UniProtKB/TrEMBL annotation, chains A, B:
Family that this chain belongs to: Belongs to the RecU family.
Co-factor binding comment: Binds 1 Mg(2+) ion per subunit.
MF-aspect GO terms: crossover junction DNA endonuclease activity; magnesium ion binding; nucleic acid binding
Reaction(s) this enzyme catalyzes, per UniProt: Endonucleolytic cleavage at a junction such as a reciprocal single-stranded crossover between two homologous DNA duplexes (Holliday junction)
Principal subcellular localisation of the protein: cytoplasm
HAMAP family the record matches: RecU
Keyword set includes Hydrolase: yes
Short name of any one Pfam family annotated for the protein: RecU
Site residues (Transition state stabilizer), renumbered to this chain: 104
Protein name: Holliday junction resolvase RecU
Length: 203, 203
């Protein structure tokens, strides 16, 4: 309900003020409460609006078991299950090139566990590289809020090291060496296209 | 329930035999009972296995409302609704190029109704063309089992004609003139990549 104080000033409930404050503070990059996925979606919306690139998150794949069709209303799914994706989450086009990536985050401060990826995704990345697509992962270290772009060819090397009996993670040193830090921005928030431009000489 | 006849021969219910018969007959291309979507999925699987291209159908987008988490079992979605897709159904990569398309069929023998597409998809196609992606539609005339590849730029012209007050469909003559007939094959079934190769000089 909206109403005014006797002095004509509009009453704003305290809760809203808190929310507003948080909104204003959010660009401090600390405790923003934004997930990596939200930041990427907002980045992709920006790219789309500005005609920079057309990249979308794929819908979550579901196994639908039961659907009801009530009269005069929309079909209701009454039973469904989450399925494991056979591809990565994001793909699209930039300057005619196929772009494909996955985004993951870890609370671990010193290394990125490879269990964040699954076999199907790794196989998909191999296929994309064979087709000369541009494929990478965005890796976020939650504690330090650092985001790195690591090209799929490097991820595949570390995955192979694990399969050959080596460590089950990529050290942060390795990510700093082979990957590319993406500084958080205002618009776009995670400007991964800029890195792609640079890495693939597309500008 | 599985059980054996007294002579030890396994009992197979009659229904299964009927299904088997249908399967053996399906390559006659008449009344196969295969949908366009199934044919495209099998084509894409073939492309993937043969390292020709990596093209996938996007999962159906759903609005999930309620999820149950029973103890010791997988999460069950108890209430969800179908959402209108904001993109086309298929995308992927071929020789580094971004490929994007939608597939539709009609029972109409003489024209293809434009109501098969919706605004969001048309807008998406415009965006893909701006990004130099390869974008098209596969149009199937069910009665004659003919499939045409029509490049998005032509579809957009016919869409504009409709918006300007013109006809709400594309005549079959127009599709024959501006589109490209894809003969049905065994493997791959709908070899749209061959047409793309030819149209964009990619081989």
């Amino acid at each position: 309900m909206n109403f005014n104080y006797p002095n004509g000033k509009r009453y704003i409930p305290e809760k809203k003020e808190t929310i507003k404050l948080k909104k204003e503070k959010k660009w401090s990059y600390s405790n923003r409460g934004m997930t990596l996925e939200e930041d990427i979606n907002i980045t992709n919306e920006y790219y789309l609006e500005q005609n920079i690139a057309a990249i979308h998150k794929k819908p979550t794949p579901l196994q639908i078991v039961q659907v009801d069709y009530p009269k005069r209303s929309a079909a209701v799914i009454k039973e469904a299950y989450f399925k494991q994706a056979s591809t990565t989450d994001y793909n699209g086009v930039y300057k005619g090139k196929y772009i494909d990536f996955e985004a993951k985050e870890t609370q671990n401060p010193t290394s990125f566990p490879l269990k964040n990826f699954h076999d199907h995704q790794i196989k998909h990345m191999e296929t994309i590289l064979k087709q000369d697509g541009i494929c990478f992962v965005l890796l976020r270290f939650s504690l330090t809020e650092e985001i790195f772009l690591l090209e799929a060819q490097h991820l595949l090397t570390f995955w192979k090291r694990m399969e050959d009996g080596g460590r089950k993670s990529i050290t942060k040193d390795e990510i700093e060496h082979f990957g590319h830090l993406i500084p958080l921005g205002y618009q776009p928030r995670i400007d991964y296209i800029k890195k792609i431009d640079y890495l693939y000489r597309l500008s």
